[in-house]
Design brief:
It is a single chain. The protein has 284 residues and is an alpha/beta fold. Helix content is 30%, strand content 19%. It contains 8 helices and 13 strands. The protein has helices at residues 36-47, 62-71, 85-94, 146-154, 178-187, 200-214, 230-240, 264-271, and strands at residues 19-22, 51-56, 81-84, 100-104, 119-120, 128-131, 158-161, 167-170, 173-176, 191-194, 223-227, 243-247, 277-279. The strands form 3 sheets. A 6-stranded parallel beta sheet has the order 3-2-1-11-12-13. The longest helix is centred in the C-terminal third of the chain and has 15 residues, at 200-214.
Length: 284
């Protein structure tokens, strides 16, 4: 299929869908404020018996993500549960007790190792790296870390990426994320473990939580993913074998101007395999 289907609302797509796995940043908020219509759409779907699991590449535990959602005005009733790449990264740290970790990221992400027996160390003494982001994502890019990554590669350190996103929108700006550093390290020949979309573990965890709430094993044919990134949301859903609703208002907004006029070849170039449907912004 190379044509695009533009949906007017989520209501068109959820007949026979038991579970929605929704991205957060770019779908229900933009980092500064919530999107009320998107929140209401997910709440309405839940009120009709559906289960909503928010899946996010946030490098923080689910409870920290929930606190941020509340501050931005996203009601708890919007979703059933949250799965974050931060949760999965914490499991890695917990499974490597006694090993020294270089933590690379802003101070606001320190909940990544809260309550864990984590030993932090400088690069010269570390056994591995946990990257939650850039130290200063307002001014830095991944290139600022090339020297550090070259030294890490010389020491053959594994880098655990707690957020595979390259960029994310903050208001009307794009800022770099941990994925930008992780991709640079991989290009330099370093070993990287990615947690979060598009990688399988976060989907498996989300499906397990959905199954607990539904009281049965979930059929992937009855699952719809929602997201705004080709690289993470669309690719992750496709590789996991579930349909995807693509929201165009997010990080790819400029690329999607005139999207409804694309020819089949351009559709393939932009998406690879097109999503089940597209909407500019999520609404019921």
């Amino acid at each position: 299929m190379t044509t695009l289907h533009f949906a007017e609302g989520l209501r068109e797509l959820v007949g026979g869908v038991d579970v929605v796995l929704s991205d957060i940043w770019g779908v229900v908020h933009n980092g500064l404020e919530s999107f009320p219509e998107a929140c209401e759409a997910l709440h309405t779907y839940r009120s009709r018996g559906g289960t909503v699991i928010l899946i996010t590449n946030a490098p923080r535990p689910a409870d920290s993500v929930q606190r941020q959602l509340r501050k931005l005005g996203v009601p708890d009733e919007t979703y059933d549960a949250i799965v974050s790449s931060g949760d999965l990264t914490r499991l890695y740290v917990a499974e490597h007790p006694g090993r020294k970790m270089l933590w690379l990221g802003p101070e606001r992400d320190n909940s990544i190792y809260r309550g864990l027996d984590a030993v932090t160390a400088p690069l010269e003494e570390a056994d591995y790296i946990v990257c939650t982001g850039l130290y200063d994502d307002e001014t830095e890019t991944a290139e600022d870390y090339r020297g550090m990554m070259l030294k890490a590669r010389e020491r053959k350190l594994t880098l655990v990426c707690a957020n595979p996103d390259i960029v994310v929108e903050r208001g009307d700006r794009l800022i770099y994320c941990a994925g930008a550093i992780a991709e640079l390290y991989r290009e330099l020949g370093g070993e990287v473990i990615f947690y979060g979309k598009p990688h399988r573990p976060i989907y498996e965890r989300a499906m397990a939580l959905a199954g607990e709430r539904q009281g049965n094993q979930i059929d992937r044919k009855k699952v719809l993913a929602i997201g705004d990134s080709v690289r993470t949301d669309l690719t992750g859903a496709r590789e996991f074998g579930i349909d995807c609703l693509f929201v165009t208002r997010g990080i790819h907004a400029e690329e999607f101007e005139g999207l409804d006029q694309l020819d089949p070849t351009s559709v393939v170039e932009l998406f690879g395999h097109p999503p089940k449907a597209l909407m500019r912004e999520l609404k019921w």
